[in-house]
């Protein structure tokens, strides 16, 4: 889905207030996204024909993702000191057997990787399905054309990180989460909402929700987009309803402005979060549902007062932090990330630079 048009903004500034600009989006489709982390087979090294369906992986190591093969190896002076004296390079193979029910025939089926380090190549049932050279940004592979429904399928992933490709510890392997995604052909793609708060005061705020809607049907589709606003207590407080027409093979963007009375403002120490729940209704059936977390806040910079959050001068006490978790390696561990944040906050940190690459989507926003 990331191949479709969306409203992602990429930028780099020295420090970001924790959670201030992080908008987490959790996809909850008509068919829910499911974890694809369990029951993989792994082999470290070169091997011929491992991408084929018939290949026998019964003697390979069994494991669950996320996985960092480099942290498992002994330290050695022969390895680059900048990457911790660990073998972050080489070739690693991952394979997994899975089934998709025939009831999903006609939908879009994909595998989403939050991160794979790196030079990833992906095959499904022996057919090449996609690749991603960069290890820090997630990617999604459409596997619809290669599937056998109600039968055994095999996905094979080859990673080939290179030596001297980084000057810090990167880890190696499928070190972030993987999900199986099944979507209607009319759906909101991942990162398909862009939410801003153009006007904010203590009495009222305006929420601007821009929603990308992808139509992969062969015909134009007329549907209804419903966006509900849920307050921090879990109560629905407002909604917007729009009639939409999306041309075949395109992604349209729908803009909705929704008012919120007496908003609970997001603050560094009281990070109140709202939810925007987006539904697509087609022929009186909900075919997609997408949940976006966001905060209502006002930010400004002044030559005399510096950074202002909700009209109040706020000093940014920031640090840089890499994606790895010390001796635990790079394989994502939520409790370890939470502990890192707790330590940072206890020492007075309220801003974070995720040096030098994008962090796992949602990690910072959920802490």
From TrEMBL:
Domain of life where this protein originates: Bacteria
As given in the record, the signal peptide range reads 1-27
What does the UniProt keyword field contain? Glycosidase, Hydrolase, Signal
> Which Pfam families does this chain map to?
Glyco_hydro_2 (PF00703), Glyco_hydro_2_C (PF02836), Glyco_hydro_2_N (PF02837)
Glycoside hydrolase family 2 immunoglobulin-like beta-sandwich domain: residues covered: 194-297
**GO biological process per UniProt:** carbohydrate metabolic process
Entry's family note: Belongs to the glycosyl hydrolase 2 family.
The protein's name in its UniProt record: Beta-galactosidase
């Amino acid at each position: 889905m990331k191949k479709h048009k969306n409203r992602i903004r990429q930028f780099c500034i020295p420090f970001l207030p924790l959670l201030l600009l992080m908008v987490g989006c959790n996809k909850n489709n008509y068919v829910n996204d499911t974890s694809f982390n369990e029951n993989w087979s792994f082999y470290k090294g070169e091997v011929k024909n491992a991408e084929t369906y018939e290949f026998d992986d019964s003697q390979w190591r069994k494991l669950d993702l996320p996985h960092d093969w480099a942290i498992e190896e002994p330290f050695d002076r022969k390895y680059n000191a900048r990457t911790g004296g660990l073998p972050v390079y080489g070739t690693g193979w991952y394979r997994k057997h899975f089934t998709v029910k025939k009831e999903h025939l006609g939908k879009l089926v994909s595998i989403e990787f939050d991160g794979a380090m790196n030079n990833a190549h992906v095959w499904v049932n022996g057919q090449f399905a996609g690749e991603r050279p960069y290890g820090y940004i997630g990617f999604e592979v459409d596997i619809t054309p290669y599937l056998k429904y109600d039968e055994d399928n095999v996905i094979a992933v080859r990673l080939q990180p290179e030596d001297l490709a980084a000057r810090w510890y990167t880890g190696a392997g499928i070190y972030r989460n993987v999900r199986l995604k099944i979507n209607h052909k009319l759906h909101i793609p991942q990162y398909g909402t862009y939410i801003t708060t153009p006007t904010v005061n203590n009495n009222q705020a305006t929420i601007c929700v821009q929603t990308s809607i992808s139509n992969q049907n062969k015909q134009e589709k007329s549907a209804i987009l419903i966006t509900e606003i849920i307050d921090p207590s879990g109560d629905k407080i407002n909604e917007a309803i729009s009639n939409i027409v999306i041309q075949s093979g395109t992604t349209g963007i729908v803009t909705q402005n929704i008012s919120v009375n007496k908003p609970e403002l997001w603050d560094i120490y009281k990070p109140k979060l709202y939810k925007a729940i987006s539904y697509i209704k087609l022929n009186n059936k909900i075919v997609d549902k997408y949940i976006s977390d966001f905060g209502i806040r006002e930010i400004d910079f002044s030559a005399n007062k510096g950074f202002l959050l909700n009209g109040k001068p706020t000093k940014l006490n920031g640090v840089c932090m890499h994606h790895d978790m010390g001796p635990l390696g790079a394989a994502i561990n939520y409790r370890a990330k939470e502990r890192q944040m707790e330590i940072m906050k206890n020492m007075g940190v309220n801003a974070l630079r995720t040096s030098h690459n994008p962090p796992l989507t949602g990690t910072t926003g959920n802490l």
